[in-house]
Amino acid sequence: MTYIAQQPKEQIIEDYARYVNPGRVEVYRQMGVDFVPGRREGVWLWDVDGSRRLLNCRTSGGVFNLGHRPPRVVEAVKRALDELDVGDHMLMSEMRAVLAKRLAELTPGDIQYTTFSPGGAEAIDVAIKLARGYTRRPKVISVRKGYHGHTGFALAAGEDVFRSKFGPMPPGFLKVPFGDADALERVVDEETAAVIIETIPATAGILIPPDDYYPRVRALCDRAGAVLILDEVQAGLGRTGRMWAIEEWGVVPDVLVIGKGLSGGVYPMSATCHRPHLDRFFQENPFIHLSSFGGAALGCVASLAMLDQITEPGFLEHVRAMGKRFAAGFADLKARHPIVAEVRQRGLMIGFELCDDRLGPLMTMALGANGVLAVFADFRPSTIQILPPLIIQPDEVDYVLSALDRSCEMLSQMDLDALPELLLPLTL
Q: Which of 270, 249, 308, 291 is nearest to 102 (CA)?
């Protein structure tokens, strides 16, 4: 039995509109997007009707760090299905213990304990609950244009564009500009439970902070007794050419949140990893947070197989080498195409900045026409997020660069003022 193309593509789109999300289908239609993923393998996605393929530089924000259906992860989960299931979240779990121990070995500093969740937003909720429970304080400080997910506390820590239609948010949340330690210093005080930041904010356009930013943030949290939470759901697990993006700044957070790539692209997994002193709250309240599918046994198997691959000798060196190959190509593109404003990059976490917000959606469409899936940053639409699988090879890097070259040429010939206003989706 095949699970792909059981129905004609037109019927799939009609059923999606009728039974899943008609509004999203309408947005895609207005943008001329009718791609329905079918076959998937490595860095490639094929349309369900087999008419074209795209090199995936979206990777669902890093879910597909190892590409689609990575053989080692898939085989590990297949074997596990002969013995395991999701497990009972209330009971002790061998696989959960094995994965938590592995994460304790790999995470920065003295981070030791892990609480598992199915998705990144829930993992952020756990982090904020832990910070408030441990400190018994209300205030949570995040950064403007940050993105932490769509549930509860995660939504409250994010941007108003996602929050405004849901009425009052939980109180005690405020925002400061990313990268501005002086602004943070003005609001961190004895009422602050936590400071939460994406190490490299992706939805804001792949922003890189000043060199002294994270050391100063760490010092401010220490001085106030606040918990430093770093969200590496997108930036972690090798994306920047380091295991954790924060390693560049030599700072150890109190809580590290990881997800997306932890799944191996096969089974939903996220983790809230914290230092020993914070665990006093969970020891006093061992059943204060429950998640039916957090740390499912099958998911732990997928995560362990993924970690085995990205910790192999040479893996991170490969990520850095492919990042350098991209960087050389970007320099050439910037020199030849005036619409390219700048490139912000760490490893294979790349923000390709164009000179006009209107160019982002147009570039997304142009890249699609040229065989690459990449989208603009929701909170900075002039920036194209380029997040290829970490297994990308030199010829595939060149393929993306060639597609960018052709797409820049296409956009350079357009009269933006003559184009109709585009309907910009919040999330692609």
A: 308
Work out the burial of residue 163: count CB atoms within 10 Å of its CB; fewer than 13 is exposed, 13-18 middle, 19 or more buried.
Answer: middle
Rounded CA-CA distance 161/143 in Å is 14
pTM: 0.95
Pairwise CA distance, residues 100 & 350, whole Å: 30
Q: DSSP labels for 130-196?
A: HHHHHH---EEEEETT----SSHHHHHTS-HHHHGGG-PPPSSEEEE-TT-HHHHHHH--TTEEEEE
Query: Which residue range(s) make up the domain with 348?
Result: 313-377+401-413
41-64 pLDDT, tens digit each: 999 999 999 999 999 999 999 999
Statement: residue 200 has pLDDT above 80: yes
Per DSSP, the three-state class of 252 is coil
| C-alpha–C-alpha distance, residues 72 and 306, integer Å | 8
Q: Does one domain contain both 299 and 243?
A: yes
Q: Is the pLDDT of residue 132 over 50?
A: yes
User: CB-based contacts of 2: which residues, under 8 Å, 6+ apart?
Assistant: none
Residue where a domain stops, chosen among 279, 294, 310: 310
Please give the Cα distance from 36 to 397 (Å, whole number): 24
Mean pLDDT over each residue of the chain, to the nearest integer? 95
| Cβ-contact 361, 381 below 8 angstroms | yes
Instruction: Please tell me the predicted confidence (pLDDT) of residue 423.
Output: 45
Q: What is the DSSP letter of 348?
A: T
Alpha-carbon span 326 to 333, nearest angstrom: 10
Determine the Cα–Cα distance for residues 119 and 149; give it in Å rounded to an integer.
9
Calculate ∠ Cα 89-92-98, nearest 5°: 105
Same domain, 326 and 339: yes
Q: How many CA atoms lie within 13 A of 251 on its CB side?
A: 23
Would the CA dihedral through 62, 107, 253, 259 be positive or negative? positive
Tell me: the pLDDT tens digits for 294-324?
Answer: 999 999 999 999 999 999 999 999 999 999 9
Q: Give the full edge-to-edge strand order of the sheet including 113-117.
A: 113-117, 270-274, 255-258, 227-231, 192-198, 139-143, 173-176
- Same domain, yes or no: 224 and 275: yes
User: What letters, b where the CB count within 10 A reaches 16 and e where it falls short, cover 91-116?
Assistant: eebebbeebbebbeebbbeebbbbbb
Question: Is there a single domain that holds both residue 95 and residue 84?
Answer: yes
Domain co-membership, 271 together with 360: no
